[in-house]
Amino acid sequence: MPMTKVFSPDAIPAGGHYSQAIAAGGMIYISGQLGISKFDDPTDSVHTQVHRVLNSLKAILAVQGADISSVVKVTIYVTDIKLWPEIDTIYSSFFANHKPARAIVPVPELHYGANIELEAMAIDPH
Q: How far is residue 1's CA from residue 11's CA, in Å, rounded to a whole number?
């Protein structure tokens, strides 16, 4: 099965040995997108971080000609479950009537001090 690395300059850059996403088998597998803009400065609010990961998701999907309606599964990692109401409000507004399957995973910490990380799977329209 052929695999294609997916890269968007408008998405959060990979911080290690991985691709932003891989397209294979009719799907797009989006790697975890951290909510930080710089790997050494995690001081942005959770509001800003949520918007950043969602916009990064949108940018990666666009490379493959997909959009948020193509998303079938989202996993969100959050360092403080008390942040969930704010995250869910932004998430709900972003996806509107589209409701992909979703998991919320509270974690003790994320790389680089981020508060949120989002990974997703979407249908590849190619």
A: 26
